[in-house]
Every structure is written in structure tokens, then in C-alpha cells.
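ok so for the tutorial part 2 we go from a plain amino acid sequence to predicted C-alpha cells. step 1 is just haveing the sequence, like this:
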Amino acid sequence: MACPPNRFFYLAWFAMVPVMFGLDRAQNWKQAAFVSWVAGCVATAGGFYWMVSLMRRFAGMHVVLAVAVFAIFCGYQGLTFLLFGVTTRAIREKTGWPMEMVAPLVFVTCEWMVPLLFPFYVAITQAWHPVVIQIAEFTGPLGVSALLLLSSGVIYDTLHLRPRALKPAIIGVGVIATVLLFGVIRVRQVDAEIAGAPKIKVGAVQGNVAYNEKGEKNPALAQRQLQALREHSRRLEESGAQLIVWSETAFPYWFPRELKQDLPEADNRRLKDGFSTPLLTGMVTYSTAPLRVYNSAFLFDKRDNITSQYDKVELLPFGEALPTWLDFGFVRKLVPQGFGHFARGSGPKTVSLEVSDQRYAIGTLICYEDILPQYLRKVGELHPYLLVNMTNDSWYGAETEPWEHLALAVFGSIEQRTSMARVVNSGVTAFIDPVGRVKRKIDPVEPSSTRELQETSSESVVAPVALLQAGNTVFARVGDAFAYVCVALTAMMLWRNNPATAKRGKARR
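step 2 — the prediction. this is what the C-alpha cells look like for a chain of 509 residues:
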């Protein structure tokens, strides 16, 4: 309930207290593992229930099979909590140290170590509260997760230990207060940088095309989709947009990679018709001999030349590409044509945008690349002045996943201290400033509601965007150093054995 789009963010500050009681009252490590695993499964089910409809749409699964696969998914994602429970109990049995000291370190270790199909952090619950999440420029989202576990630990120790918890509780509250004070100060500092930074007006077109209505197989539908994109682009140009962005694979045809400029005016597939503003658009591109297909972003300048291109690097497992450990000849021959056959891009790139005789590097991200901290670090090393994410979330529905995706993307702007423009086929299209605030947005729509596509179903928005150079924060330079420290301290606590302290720890239970 604390996770977006729900607004009960404050629940996350004490949500782990019942789990902590369960861990300390478990009769053995197996019970502790079960309690924490169930908690993880419940948390996963609440945040990812939309996967059932995703599997029915994307894979055509029967609802019973989809629910069964979802249950397995929840069981796997719950391993983060299971590992947290077992490790926390083991450390407290060995040392008797306060929960507020043990839990944050262990939970960060587990969040960082367990690989997930869909990236997720408990920090997502605080995405709409900039003061809380400013520490992400040092720690990434894991620092916010640690803060929430610290809060639950302070509450648990206070309720459980009472007088003996006073000193640790004061220290814990002091740490939380210091982080929040830092957030207040840092927001003001970055706001001052934003005020003095150059700005450009970016226009975004949200096509609102349903997942089953992509026009490449339906020429009439493709023309209507393209015409809607052009019409909104003309309006954005009239509103002063200096860059127009379409979403991931928005161009409804495959585009040959050998072309160096837009299609001829006589070709009804021409992109820039009736406007001259530079256009950054997602599209499926292909090369021949041999045939290779890419999920790409191309930048067309004022003269309709293709000046930059980027090919998606972090391909979605199974949907866009087979995982590396399965990508070999025998398995690939078994995969249906068009499924998991996208070629991987060569690496992070920036596209170069010219505005008022000035050139700015723009970091281009496609789909979920905007929520992968380590990939964002690689983009940040190129020091772009703006991040642009193009996404198509129409498979996931409009209720929950688009908001979760946006909430996780907020952390990327703080980690790199730059603005991010997110242009999403069916929403949420949004502009995020370097503080992590969502300044302008277009709400998501239910893709199936656009079955009879009309031009009016598309939407667009234009907003001024501050250009701050990315890649200069502590997190951009050192990455997951905070996680490494937590892993090292967790290992030290597991190794340590203090019989006297452990005896007191057992007595507390």
C-alpha cells in the first residue's frame, strides 16, 4: 500500500516491524526463513499483481497458468526477504546487537545481491518525497531502503527493549533527522543550480497506441498513427518546442539503417511532415546481409538529416532477446520468428542536439534502461546535459506499472543530477527535474481503450527543461560503494561471535 500509485508512503517507515517481531520469536532459523519469505511474497504480490494481465496479453496464457507463473515469480522475488530474515536472525543470535543496527545493513546487502527480473527497491515508496531521497546521489536507491529499515528498527527496539533501547534509539533518530536535514539543504542548493542553468523547451508526444494495434502489419492503422504523431509535433513546434520526442518504437514502420536522412516527401511514411523542429524518435530499424533488427532511437535535425542514433543495449530478457546463457544455435532455432530476436546495441551513446548555435549531449535510454543504476552510470560517464527515456509500457495496463516505472526513474535523475524527459507510448509521460520532482506529466491510459484509434486519442505536452551536466555525483563516480560497505559489514557481523552479548540477545526474546 506504500508503493506508487498508492499514497500511503508513511507505512514504509514502520512496515518491517511485524517481520522483526516474527524473526525474534521464531523457534528456529527455518521458522524465521518462512516468516520473512511470506512477507516478501506478499509484498511482491501487492506490487506486481499486474503481471497476471501482462502474461495474458503478451503470451496469451490462460488465467490459471498466468496465476501459477505469477506465484512462482512472487516466490522467487521473496528470496530477498528470506535471505534478510535468516541473516538477521543469525547475526542477532551471535551478537545480540540492536535491530536498528543490523537490519539496514543486512537488507541493503540482500536487495543488492539477489538478481531480479524486474528491478525493485523498497525505496520506491518514497519517490514522491524529494527531501527523503536526496541521499541517492551518494548511495543510489539502496540508501533510502536503509533509511526505512533503520526507522523500523528504531521502532522495534523501542517497543521491545524499552529503557535499554533509549541510547540506540536516539542515535537512530539522529541519523534519520540528519538525512532529512541534508535533503532540505540539498534541494535548495540544486534549485539554485537549476535557476542558473540553460534551458530548452522539450515537446513530448504520447501516442496512446494499444499493444495489439501497432501499425506495422496494418498500413491503414499505421498511417493514422503516424498522422497523429505529425499533427501533435506541429502543435508542439507552434508552442516553441526546441526538441520533439516520440516514444519507443513510435514510428509505425521498420526503418532501414542505411538511410542518412528522412524519407522523401512523396513517401507517405515520411516522419517530419509539416514541422522542422529536431525530432528524437524510437523506431524499429533493420540492416540486411545478414538481417539484424534493432530497437533504436534516431535524431533528425532541422534539415531532416539523421545526425545521431542509439540502439538499445539492455534488452528485455525473453521479450527482446534470449538471455546470454540461452542464446546459442539450438535454442534460437526453437524460438518463434520475431520473438527475442533484437540485436544488442554496442553500448551507451549520447545524441548531439544543436540549439541556438550550442550543442548539447543527450543521454538516450530505451524502455527500462532508465531504472538500471549501473547502466545509468555508464551513460553518466558521457556527461550528457539531459536524459531522454523512450518507453512503451502499453503491455502492462494503466493502473500500477506505469507509476512504478516512473517512481523508479525518479532516482536516476538524482543519481546523475540532471533532468529526465520520459516519453511513454501510453503514459506516464513526464518531466523529472534534477531534484527528482515530476514537473509535468500526462497520465497513463488503458491501452485496450484505444482500439478505435483517433487522432484525438494521442496527447502531447511541452515543458522547459534545465540542462545540468550529468555524471558528477558521488554515486556516478563510485557506484555501489555503499552496497559494498553493507556487504562487508554484514559479513563481519556474521563472522563475529560474542557469547556474552549473544546471551543477552537471546534473553531479550
